[in-house]
Design brief:
Elements (H helix, E strand, L loop, with lengths): L2 H10 L6 H10 L4 H21 L5 H25 L6 E6 L7 H12 L3 E4 L6 H11 L3 E5 L8 H11 L7 E5 L5 H6 L4 E2 L3 H13 L1
Parallel strand pairs: 1-2, 1-3, 3-4, 4-5
Helix pairs in contact: 1-2, 1-3, 2-4, 3-4, 4-5, 5-9, 6-7
Bound molecules: CO-5-methoxybenzimidazolylcobamide.
Length: 211
C-alpha cells in the first residue's frame, strides 16, 4: 500500500497520532501538499461523511477522524498558504446569537476544512453584525449558520437581512443547519440551502461553489 493510502486509512481509522508522521513522510517522498490533501485527506473525510450519513458511523467516530485529519492539516496548512493554492471556497461558520451549542457546528466546520475549504469559525452566540464583519474580513463566499434551539433559529433570517443590508447577499451563499431547521425553513427565510448533517453540508457547499 502507498503512503497516501496509509494516510487515508489512518484518518478513517481515527489514528491522530499516526497522521502527522505519515504526512511528513509523504512530503519527504516528494508528494505536494495539494496531492496529499486531494488523494488522502479529502477522500478519507468523504468516506467518513458517507458512512455517517448511512448510519454506519456515529458522532464520536466522526470527531476522531476529523481530529486525525486536523493533525495532518497542521503540517499542510502553512505549506498550502505558501504555495498560493486557492482554497475551494472561503467559509464563515458560527452558531447564531443566544445559542451555546457548538458540537455539530464544529463537526461541520472540520468536515468543510477536510474537503478543502478555508474555514473561519466564529464560534457560538454569533450576532448578525459579527457574521457580517467576519464575511467582510475574510472575503467569504459561504456563510454557515447553525442553531439548535427553536428560539434561536429565529436569528437566522436576521443574519440574512443584515447581509442584504450590507450589500453582500450576491457575494455570499447562506447555508443553514441544526436540529430545529429544515429545507422548508431554508426556503422560507431565503437561505441558499439546508444540510441535515456534516457530510451533507460538504456536498451542499461543493454544489453551491460549483454554481
Ligand atoms: Co442543549 N438543548 N441546551 N445543551 N442540548 C438541546 C438542543 C435540546 C433539543 C435538548 C432537549 O430539550 N431535548 C433543547 C432544545 C429544545 C428546543 O429548542 N425546543 C436544548 C436546550 C433547551 C438547552 C438549554 C436551553 C437548557 C437549559 O439551560 N435549560 C441550554 C441552552 C443554552 C444556550 O444555548 N443559550 C442548553 C445547553 C446545552 C449544553 C451546554 C449542556 C450542551 C451543549 C454543549 C456544546 O454544544 N458545547 C447541550 C447539549 C449537548 C444538547 C444536546 C443533548 C445534544 C446536542 C448535540 O451536540 N448533538 C441536545 C439534544 C439532542 O440533540 N439530542 C440539546 C450532537 C451534534 C453532533 O448534533 O448539534 O444536531 P447537532 O449537529 C448535527 C446536525 O444538526 C447538523 O450537522 C451536525 C452533525 O451531523 N448541523 C449542521 C448542525 N449545525 C449545522 C450547520 C450546518 C449544517 C448542518 O450548516 C451551516
Amino acid at each position: 500500500m502507498s503512503l497516501l493510502e496509509d494516510l487515508k486509512d489512518a484518518v478513517i481509522e481515527m489514528e491522530d497520532e499516526k497522521t502527522p508522521e505519515l504526512t511528513q513522510k509523504a512530503l519527504d517522498e516528494g508528494n505536494t501538499p495539494e496531492a496529499i490533501l486531494k488523494k488522502a485527506l479529502v477522500p478519507a473525510m468523504d468516506f467518513v461523511g458517507d458512512q455517517f450519513e448511512k448510519g454506519k458511523r456515529y458522532v464520536p467516530e466522526m470527531v476522531l477522524s476529523a481530529q486525525a485529519m486536523k493533525a495532518a492539516m497542521k503540517l499542510l496548512r502553512p505549506l498550502l498558504a505558501e504555495s498560493g493554492i486557492e482554497p475551494k471556497g472561503i467559509v464563515v461558520i458560527g452558531t447564531v446569537e443566544g445559542d451555546l451549542h457548538d458540537i455539530g457546528q464544529n463537526l461541520v466546520a472540520m468536515m468543510l476544512e477536510g474537503a478543502g475549504f478555508e474555514v473561519y469559525n466564529s464560534g457560538t452566540e454569533t450576532t448578525a453584525d459579527e457574521f457580517v464583519k467576519a464575511i467582510k474580513e475574510h472575503n467569504a463566499n459561504i456563510v454557515g449558520l447553525s442553531a439548535l434551539i427553536t428560539t434561536t433559529m429565529t436569528h437566522m433570517p436576521e443574519v440574512i437581512e443584515r447581509i442584504e443590508d450590507a450589500g453582500l447577499r450576491d457575494k455570499v451563499k447562506v447555508i443553514i443547519g441544526g436540529a430545529p431547521v429544515d429545507q422548508d425553513y431554508s426556503d422560507e427565510i431565503k437561505a441558499d440551502g439546508y444540510a441535515s448533517d456534516a457530510g451533507s453540508a460538504v456536498k451542499l457547499a461543493n454544489k453551491l461553489i460549483e454554481g
